[in-house]
Amino acid sequence: MKEAMFYEALPDKGVRCNLCDHHCQIHDGKHGICGVRENQGGRLMSLVYGKVIAEHIDPIEKKPFFHFLPGSTALSIGTVGCNFRCKFCQNFDISQYPHFHKGEIAGRNRTPSDIVDTAKASRCEAIAYTYTEPAIFYEFALDTAVLAHEEGIKNVFVSNGFMSPKAARHIAPYLDAANIDIKAFTNDFYKKLCAGRLEPVLETIRLLKALGVWVETTTLIIPGLNDGDEELRNIARFIKEVGIEIPWHVTQFYPTYELLDRSRTPLETLRRARDMGLAEGLRYVYEGNVPGEGGEHTYCPSCGTVIIERHGVELIRNRLQEGKCPECGTAIDGVRM
Fold first, then answer.
1. What is the pLDDT of residue 285?
2. Does domain 51-294 have CATH number 3.20.20.70?
């Protein structure tokens, strides 16, 4: 447990948490929406500091990052809790754990040094803060990220993008990359299916890009909910507005948690989304959760040559020559490509 950052005192021992864009007003003895930040006598405390519920070594492509240290591995960590309540969450047993277990906080005790030492011993080039929204364990992520940078290890967030601008600015000097979900392009979707809002997510993408963080984006395409042509086109246009070099991962949904009445996303829907993204001018659009279909390869945006060949998240072949296409010499965007 550690005192939280980004909160202000209110009358009668109340506090307002400003870590994310919910800006929860929390009475003494109560929790914020995330379930892991508690007002204890007028002090806001992070209940998940050092309480790691999941820890695993993954290919960086699994996060997914296709233009950040391709072929490397990342130590992935996360705690319980989340500031969203997505009805289609694939990690709902972790993200909603405090709500399922009357506020209980589960996890293995770990220090920032433990995490960095494990990453070093495992020869991981990055630490990925993931499984649930990393902003809700911000203090632990920040302390770990600072130490990791001192050791030459990169830090990446896999995020819903709902952190406050102040929090994003504070961690940006230690954050090397972020993959941010654009879950849909309507507030109605965010409100009904995620208990959030769209605009703060878009603002985080703009801000992190402006602060020099490498950004990739992901949209889980759910049949009948966010798969319309206009919505997909609007997502692609927004990404292009921020940066045509930002990769967009369009990913197959499968029924889970509270959204069991929808079928898997048809492959043709992912193809349509990818084609739209490329037609709108994005350089890199990838199909996710459908390995072996070719939509996970990196193609040269100039000549169309397959530059990085993948099977799902497994890197099969990397033909880049000093970050450039071997056929036409076009520079491929990313970090250590």
1. 98
2. yes
